[in-house]
Write a structure and sequence with these properties.
This protein is of the alpha/beta class. Helix content is 44%, strand content 15%. The longest helix has 20 residues. Bound molecules: acetoacetyl-coenzyme A (CAA). The site of acetoacetyl-coenzyme A has 18 residues, from helix 2, helix 7 and helix 9.
C-alpha cells in the first residue's frame, strides 16, 4: 500500500535538485533541501526563486501561490534536518562513492520507515539500496531536465524494492502531476538507454564532418521535430554528466554505441561541461550561443 508523503527531503540543489525541490513544493509538500555549504545552497534556492518569479510574471501562477510554495521550502547544510522526512530524494553528483558515503550518513539519521530515492541517470539503484539498512524501501525516481517542465518521471524498481515503497514512489510522482513510468534497474532505464547513444552518435557525426555543430542541431530540429538539437541537448544535460552516464552504460553493456567519443573526452579534459560551465559545443558567453571553434 502507498504511504502518505508529507515531508520531502532533497539532497543537492544543483541542476536537477533545485527543480525537484520546486516541483515537490508546488505539489503541496513541505521540502527540506540540503547542500554542502551555504553558498551552494543559496545558489540553488536562487534558481527556484527565479523560476517562481518568472511564473508570476508570465501569469502562470499568482503571487499568493508563489509565496506559499516559497514558504514550504527550507534550506539546510545539515543532514539532521531531514530526520523526520517521509521521502528523501538524492540529486547529488553522479558519483557512486559520493552517493554511498552520503546514504550511509542519511540512513543513520532519517526515520526508519521513510522511503529513499535516487535520481541517478544511470547507476544501479541496488548498489545504493544495499548500503542502507532499508533496501526494501529504496527506489529510483528519475526526473528529466528541466524537472519543472518535463512531464516524465521514471520510477525504478530494483531487486530489493518492496511493493509498498514502489507504490509510494509511483503515487508521489503522480501527485506531482508527472507521468510516472515504471521501469527496471537496468543502466540508463528507458530514456537514457535510447537518448545517450543518440547524443553520442551526433558527436561522432560531428567528428566525421557530416555537418557543423549548428547544422547537425538544426537538421534534427527541422527534420525530426525535436525541441533541441542533440549537441545543444548534450550541453544542456551537462557534458560531465553525459560522460559519466556513457561510462556506466559502456561498462554494463560493452557496446560501441555507448562508448565515449574522443571529442567528448577531450572536451571534458578542457573543463568544457556545456551550458553550466559556459562552454561546450557552444560558447554561452554572448547574447546567443555561438559554435565553439575549438571542436
Ligand atoms: N526551469 C523551469 N522552467 C523552464 C526552464 C527551466 N530551466 N526552461 C524553460 N522553462 C519553461 C519556460 O518558463 C517556458 O514556460 P512558459 O511558456 O510557461 O513561459 C517553457 O518552459 C518553454 O520554455 P522556452 O519558451 O524558454 O523555451 P523552449 O520552448 O525552447 O523550451 C525546453 C525549453 C523545455 C527546455 C525545450 O527546449 C525542451 O523540451 N528541450 C529538450 C529537453 C530534454 O530533452 N530534456 C531531457 C534531457 S535528458 C535528462 O534530463 C535525463 C538525464 O538523466 C540526463
Amino acid at each position: 500500500m502507498a504511504q502518505k508523503i508529507e515531508r520531502v527531503g532533497v539532497l543537492g540543489a544543483g541542476l536537477m535538485g533545485h527543480g525537484i525541490v520546486q516541483v515537490a513544493a508546488e505539489a503541496g509538500h513541505e521540502v527540506v533541501v540540503r547542500e554542502l555549504d551555504e553558498a551552494t545552497l543559496q545558489k540553488g534556492l536562487g534558481k527556484v526563486e527565479k523560476q517562481l518569479a518568472r511564473a508570476v510574471e508570465k501569469g502562470r501562477s499568482s503571487r499568493e501561490d508563489a509565496d506559499a510554495v516559497r514558504a514550504r521550502i527550507r534550506g539546510t547544510v545539515h543532514y539532521r534536518d531531514l530526520a523526520d522526512c517521509d521521502l528523501v530524494i538524492e540529486a547529488i553528483t553522479e558519483s557512486l562513492p559520493l552517493k554511498l558515503e552520503m546514504w550511509r550518513e542519511v540512513d543513520e539519521i532519517v526515520k526508519p520507515d521513510a522511503v529513499f530515492a535516487t535520481n541517478t541517470s544511470s547507476l544501479a539503484v541496488v548498489d545504493q539500496a544495499a548500503v542502507t539498512g532499508r533496501p526494501e524501501r529504496f527506489v529510483g525516481l528519475h526526473y528529466f531536465n528541466p524537472a519543472q517542465v518535463m512531464k516524465l518521471v521514471e520510477v525504478v524498481r530494483c531487486v530489493t524494492t518492496g511493493e509498498d515503497a514502489f507504490q509510494t514512489a509511483l503515487e508521489f510522482a503522480r501527485g506531482e502531476g508527472k507521468l510516472a513510468i515504471p521501469t527496471r534497474d537496468r543502466a540508463g532505464f528507458i530514456v537514457n538507454r535510447l537518448l545517450v547513444p543518440y547524443m553520442l552518435d551526433a558527436i561522432r557525426a560531428r567528428e566525421e564532418g557530416v555537418g557543423s555543430i549548428a547544422e547537425i542541431d538544426e537538421a534534427m530540429k527541422a527534420g525530426a521535430g525535436h525541441p533541441m538539437g542533440p549537441l545543444t541537448l548534450a550541453d544542456f544535460v551537462g557534458l560531465d554528466t553525459l560522460g559519466s552516464i556513457c561510462e556506466v552504460l559502456f561498462d554494463e553493456f560493452r557496446e560501441r554505441r555507448f562508448a565515449q567519443p574522443p571529442a567528448l573526452r577531450k572536451m571534458l579534459s578542457a573543463g568544457w561541461f556545456g551550458r553550466k560551465s559556459g562552454t561546450g559545443f557552444y560558447d554561452y558567453s554572448g547574447e546567443t550561443p555561438t559554435e565553439n571553434p575549438g571542436i
